[in-house]
Amino acid sequence: MNRLSVALLLMLAVLSGCQGDRSEPSAPAPAVSEKSGEGPDSVAEEQPESHSPPIDESPELEIPKFEPIVVPVFRPSDTRPEYALDDYEPRDIRRLSSRRIVLFTDVEESQLVGLGQSVDALYDEWVRYFGELPPSREEDEYQLTGYLMKEVDRFRAAEMLPDELPRFEHGRHRGLQFWMFNQEFDYYQRHLVLHEATHCFMTTMPGPLPPHWYMEGMAEYFATHRRVDAETLEFGICPPSREEFRGFGGVDLIRQEVEADRFLSVANVMQLGEREFEQSKTIPYAWSWWLCQFLSRHPRYAERFRSLGQHLSSGDFTPALEAAFENDWETMEIDWALATQSLAYGFDVEQFAFEFEPGQPLAAGTEKTMDVSSSASWQSTGIRVQAGQTISLSCAGRVTLAQVPKPWESEGTGITIRYHEGKPIGRLLGIVLPDQLPADTPLGSIPEFLQIDVGNGTSVTSPTNGSLYLRVNDFWNELADNTGAFNVTVKVE
Questions:
Q1: Torsion angle of alpha carbons 429, 352, 232, 248, nearest 10°?
Q2: For residues 182 and 155, is the Cβ–Cβ distance under 8 A?
Q3: How far does Cα 78 stand from its chain's mean position?
């Protein structure tokens, strides 16, 4: 008999003992009463049979507890090269440093004011957006090295420009280092430093990276910045003017593409890959910047979009993106198309955001009256119109669009001394928005919106089904100081 057979027989024997003998129990032995004093031949009263379970006197088994093994995660060690003074000073290269960056450059010092401070401040912004990086095994602080080059041969001679580094037009990053050429405009010089530094941060941890449009769009998003005061910088903004942001052409490029009927939907932008970025050094960057700006700032999408930053190296970015927006993709495409048509310097995504409130049909020949605030974006009238229906609108009242140097008051016709999007500010405007995109809407085409120039009153026949929205025309970043509302009457015939 082998060992396995013996073990099985022993197990069966133990199990049989635990279950007890299945035969009839023997009669209990007579007991001697200690209280009566009778002899051993006297039989005590019969005791009732006990059915209590047997007491298990074996020691309780102790199950060992296993603590989960926590494997620490570290970011890659810092392997940046170190240079002695004799390596670069004779070649007119200077070393500047701050907490988060070491910069080697031959550019005039006047063009470098605040560069280190800007990278230091942006690091804190990265952490707020993406979360803290893991520590390094050496427990050193996170720091980058940048090479800002005016005369490239100086850096080659100092062995600061690797021969195997692929050619680049403006800038290139690798690990904790980036290289860039001197730029014509001071603003864009800082912009490009911040762009390449953002790439370094986003690629710190090894692993599958998010799609190209996201990597480039977020680098552009963080790099678009301005100084609020001597101590504060703001990142991720929409440039308020062309003059202050010379070298950054994102706003102008988007407007040119839309006017040339080369609009890209959200889905189109998310299909931009490395090949498109290599073919065009400007337009894909502009579209990717604008999409990241739009989704990072819009109250309806911002929280979900920012959560994608937790998947920089997990490989789960695309599934997380699809899950985040699967229930309102069509709404986002309508929002995006309308915002893109309105994009201009100073565009404020948060001020633009409005609630989608599909309307109900209004019986033919009946009227509905409502107030339209001058300080809000598009406002739903609660009226749904059908293709072929005639809409009549009339406007009464006055609104105030500015307080200094004196109040700017306007009726529905607007104030003709200042224009926005080709219409006087203060003018009443309308739009019919589809509740959802038609199934045959071509990818990359602007959904059909009925734009209505209302003024003090107008009538128009709707070519599409949808809900009617109204607003008072003004710059998107100047709505906050507006007061008052127009009283508008809508009649559907």
A1: -80
A2: no
A3: 29
Gap between the Cα atoms of 169 and 240, Å rounded = 27
Start-to-end CA distance of the chain, whole Å, equals 100
**Cα(249)–Cα(284) distance, integer angstroms:** 12
Each residue of 152-184: pLDDT tens digit? 999 999 999 999 999 999 999 999 999 999 999
User: Checking DSSP bridges between strand 390-396 and strand 457-461, what pairing results, if any?
Assistant: antiparallel
- For residues 246 and 312, what is the distance between their CA atoms, to the nearest angstrom? 31
C-alpha triplet 444, 336, 418: angle, nearest 5°? 115
By C-alpha distance, which of 148, 132, 229 is closest to 181? Answer: 148
pLDDT (tens digit, 9 = 90+) per residue, 463-479?
889 999 999 999 999 99
The full DSSP string for 306-365 is HHGGGGTTTS-HHHHHHHHHTTSHHHHHHHHHHHHHH--TT--HHHH-------EE--TT
The amino acid at 18: C
